[in-house]
């Protein structure tokens, strides 16, 4: 490993050292890291971007809004770019590492207070470093009957980081940005903005009414680099009196289109109230198996091998997990209806399945995906499809073809809404193998091009791929994002390169 000193771009060693002294005076000696060894965890990647391009020059970890404002003053003056993270576990999208080399990581983990939970309205107000685990422990300790919706790595990660990435979970509150309400944001000139109703003196509706008065600004601070978000309001689901999770088994690989077309009306009418997840057998097999037990031939694992391994474990080529929530009578009433709808389409429905993510149980069970190949490589390829069978089938065909050429196993876990499907495809590879890492990188770029050529855009991407994905979303979008950048961060020091937005 190369442990050379990394400097912010265009900043000399002397200027940087002076700035470090000033930053230490603000946050304390222990909360600034600038030695190469201390920075290693912040530059560690899972995705197949080039390590060199994403090494930070330092880390500064404030404990308050006032400290953030003081840090910004120093960094604007010295022209040191800051890459903000809340818990910094954006695994498979860049973890804590910056989009461009030499940024300092603004690590907000120390700001981890749960500021308020309103048990009546089902809202919370949290700081960036609060994890889902911490929030759930708090709710349970206080006996507050609210459920959390969290992403799979819930115990480790933050509502703030996940929501600002527009990430998701699997309950009816699975769209995290849609279920956020009110932000506090520090701009690079130190301005403190409270969005929505937050600017009203003495407000008690900041976490109740999103839109406030005038333009609705919250979206500007997601997947962007316009500010440092220091507080976030959340909507939490009243604990349902009952819920039942179902596994729908689709018996043939080409059942995918039929599965999607069966699910769509059930989601559009809210009979199925949650995203649920439609996974292919390869993804399901990462739970019980390692790849090497099933296949040691060349190239991507053949579909026939996957289907045989799945069959031996009682699993079909496609599995859809969803839940019904509410009063037991209502669930009992809807159960035969949904079962019939799926059975008419040739699927088998198994009720009373256990899925932690749909049941308010934090767990790290999906981390078994890393055992598939070993070597710690993971990147998410995340195109969006309309919820139509033909489109999801086409996306599957395109991804299989491209990934197959690079020897990467096709996996997907689609989260299905009434109108859009987030077709989230984990690409798992051995990152200790340079050739495989390069193949994964090239494969990802080719996937972006192939999907764009077919008219598809993306829900999210990771560092190393942001400029490419931004280009797909059109020049006018890019240019307006750039104008907003100049208006809100004229110094251009916040997270250059995030979502393809540069100073
Ligand atoms: C096995 C596995 C399963 C996963 N499953 C899911 C899943 O189900 N759903 C899902 O959404 N993700 C999933 N992920 C991806 C990822 O780990 C989560 O999205 C995680 O919540 C992001 O990390 P974080 O919360 O620490 O965010 P952070 O890393 O703290 O933040 C993410 C990004 O948001 C921005 N940001 C963060 N905080 C601020 C701030 N205060 N102000 C301004 N900008 C900020 C930055 O650009 C930052 O890079 C999974 C990862 C793995 C390995």
Describe this structure in words.
The chain has 14 helices and 19 strands. It is 32% helix and 19% strand. The radius of gyration is 23 Å and the shape is globular. Strand 18 and strand 19 form a beta hairpin. With 503 residues, the chain is an alpha+beta fold. The chain has three domains: 13-108, Uridine Diphospho-n-acetylenolpyruvylglucosamine Reductase, domain 2 (2-Layer Sandwich), CATH 3.30.43; 114-238, 2-Layer Sandwich (Uridine Diphospho-n-acetylenolpyruvylglucosamine Reductase, domain 3), CATH 3.30.465; 242-453, Vanillyl-alcohol Oxidase, Chain A, domain 3. Bound molecules: flavin-adenine dinucleotide. Flavin-adenine dinucleotide is lined by residues 84-92, 108, 128, 151-153, 157-158, 160-162, 164-165, 167-168, 228-229, 366-367, 369, 378, 495, 498.
